[in-house]
Amino acid sequence: MTGAVESAEVRQAAPGAPALELRGVCKTYGPVTALQEVDLTVLAGEVHALVGENGAGKSTLIGIAAGSVRPDSGEVSIGGRLLPHATPAAARSLGVAVVYQNPALVEDLTVAENLLLAAPAGRRARRIDARTRVRAALDRVGLKLDPRVRVAELGPAPRQLLEIAKALDADPRVLILDEPTESLTADEVERLFALIRGLTPTGTAVVYISHRIAEVRRVADRITTLRDGRIRGTSDAEGIDDNAVVQMIVGRSLTAVFPDRTAAPGPQALTVAELGGAGFTDVTVAVREGEILGLAGVEGNGQREFLRALAGLGPATTGTISLGGRPVQPDSPGAAAAAGIGFVPADRLREGVAGALSVRENLAAGVLSRFASGGIVRRARELTAVRREMAATSIKAASPESGILTLSGGNQQKVVLGRVLLTEPSLLLCDEPTRGVDVGARAEIYGLLRDRADTGRPVVVLSADAAELAGLCDRVAVFSRGRVEQVLEGNDLTEDRITGVAVRATGRHAAAPTSGAGSRRGLLGRMDAIAAPVLLVLAAVVAAATAVAVPAFLGPMNVELLLYAVAVLTFVALGQLVVLLTGGIDLAVGPLVGLLVVVMSFVLAQGSGLLGGILIALAVAAGVGLVNGLLVAVWGLPPIVATLAVSIAATGTALLLRPQTGGSIDAGLAEAVQAAVGGVPVAFVAVVVLALTADVVLRRTRAGSALRAVGPGRTAATRIGVRSSVVLVGAYVGCAVCTLLGAFLLAAQIGVGDPTQGGSATLTSISAVIIAGAAVSGGRGSFTATLCGALLLAVITNATSFLGLGQYWQFWLPGAVILLAVAVSTRRHHGRRHP
């Protein structure tokens, strides 16, 4: 509570005091200077706009202020206090909240979990108050959806609103908004501006970054220009016009943003007749040679679904499409490309670029066969074409071999457009081609689109910016409720008319189908533990079928031994799940079991101190987990490489300590560990309690949310203040401790130090987790379901022995179950993702 009171006092300080100061900030990336001696002061209670072209250094500056980027020199002060070290957690603790252009959201967490995970320490709600807190945060930004929906199911606009809600919920001293309106409708933009106006009287400073000049002039008190990594000046927003702002941004005057339209378009090139599909129906439009057709309408009225259907990314169930006089059926992206249809997606990061590849590889990906001889790509020919396209599209990159993610957003967008243009499509489809692009790059993209149309090829552009459509397009089709309400051209083609038709449409067409996110079926589909009852039923069926053939299978002695084996495997599998939730894997658990059994044969022998021996075994296990965690989290090794190396070391150490089986475990201790009550091993009861408790922690605590967040969304988790490295190290240590529990049971059962024990534990633990429906990418899994998965595997293995089947069945049957489980899990996972 002290922190919350302190921050409120700071925000209520007299307006005019510095809320955010950057002094002498420099940052370089190799030979590229991103920021040079930057000084910026943002006052409490003001809206300070930061403008500049893509690549000017805005994102780097934001990252430094938010603690996610470490400057080479200079210092950051927030509310009069120096940022002690460059971490998002430190910046957030001083009152900085950021709305990122690419929202810092963890897709596999729910809306509510994302909000609660991001809450600063002083504002974390009690569990009983969490629902009210989440609902209030969503209502504040006008977001009406089920808080239990996973973020992966949301479209761009709800994600952006959730990102804004998350930042506002932190009650920040400094709120940084990076292109906050790119995915929002006009009404949502108005709501955001109203929220900003409500913040500044309390002393909150707002840093507003946008390429939309009209928004900047409307919302800002002062405007600072960043160009080529340097501050070029700060001026009051009042009285400044668009041309002056543009000249500040690009350092020159842009006399013509939109190129001239084609004087006389040719004959019809694209004809769409009565096309219908999910979200649209009876759409009839035609595009002539040399023409750019715009698609407009309030978001959700079918225009995006229609465009994606033309690109083969959505179903078209009725109607016909003709291109160049030939009928086409773009029922898949490959079929669309083969028909000469090129598509530029709105979300360049998720659908446009391959993040691990270079600029050259991204540009040439669609036309590699053009540069190949005998199946071998000729690099010289490829580079010549790539350099030519980079020059034609004005892509700014250090070299063609630069990583695509090192480029600014505008240059990434031109790479996506350039790749499509290299295929020389007969029809070019563009979904929000200038989203997140600066005014200079926009003009270049407009020119590229018009040049493409001037070659006689039709172009279709979807945009939420009515001014963009009015200036760029020859005609605009306005959608309403899944149909074309009106086609505007000539003198009717104005921003006001496009907006007016879109918001005043009265057609009574069927609304587009919804995702059903709040339905009972949708909620069932989001339950990670749905595999548990299925696995229990399967285990019961296998056990019953075996007992029919061999009644002794369900005899008391075999059941007790079976449940004890389940406990051994489950402890190890629970540890494996902890690591898998972070997106990693631990190949060292099997060799660690062998090493721990050997160690226990020394420290838990007859006459040795029980407590001291347990502590030594715990230290060995924790030490191995710590090494794994440091290799992955600090040194950045891939988990499969780090844990493979540790597994080899563990195996070697076990063989060094005991080249042959020897030693013994205290008989009394072994008897106590294997105790049973009513034929049920105490160890099995303990592992059931542990699994159930772990699921409660995983779903109902911030620590559990943080564990699930660092797997599929480590960058996003770090940005919202999660100490990802600490979580990763903790996960590997936790895995090792769980492995220790399994090894302890195994050592008590076999009674001697055998370095070969645990050899199969790695594969069987991974199998149990995968059967239980956990995602190998991290973020999803259930400890209870993992227990059930281990039970099914143990029953199958035991049943094959009782039935006298060959040993190979012990591999075939679990393998078949794994394949089936992965297929079902993958289908559920992808089926709930927003297209």
Overall strand count: 24
Task: Give the fraction of residues assigned to helices.
Answer: 40-55%
Find the CATH topology of the largest domain: ABC transporter involved in vitamin B12 uptake, BtuC
From the coordinates shown, what is the CATH architecture of the largest domain? Orthogonal Bundle
Strand order of the largest sheet: 6-7-8-3-9-10
Portion in beta strands = 15-25%
Largest sheet features = 6 strands, mixed
The class by helix and strand makeup works out as alpha/beta
CATH class of the largest domain: Mainly Alpha
The separation of the N and C termini measures: 42 Å
Rounded to the nearest angstrom, the radius of gyration is 31 Å
Shape assignment: globular
Kindly report the average pLDDT value. Answer: 85
Domain ABC transporter: 20-253, 265-506
Pfam families: ABC_tran, BPD_transp_2
Transmembrane segments: 530-555, 561-580, 587-605, 640-657, 677-698, 726-752, 758-776, 783-803, 809-826
Protein name: ABC transporter domain-containing protein
What features would you describe in this structure?
This protein is α/β, with parallel strands linked by helices and 835 residues long. Strands 6-7-8-3-9-10 form a six-stranded mixed sheet, sandwiched between helices. It has a six-stranded mixed sheet with strand order 16-19-20-13-21-22, sandwiched between helices. Strands 2-1-4-5 form a four-stranded antiparallel sheet, with helices on one face. The radius of gyration is 31 Å and the shape is globular. It contains 32 helices and 24 strands. Mean pLDDT is 85; it is low at 1-14 and 506-527. β19, α16 and β20 form a beta-alpha-beta unit. The protein has three domains: 2-250, Rossmann fold (3-Layer(aba) Sandwich), CATH 3.40.50.300; 268-504, Rossmann fold, CATH 3.40.50.300; 539-831, ABC transporter involved in vitamin B12 uptake, BtuC (Orthogonal Bundle), CATH 1.10.3470. This is ABC transporter domain-containing protein. Keywords: ATP-binding, Cell membrane, Membrane, Nucleotide-binding, Repeat, Transmembrane, Transmembrane helix, Transport.
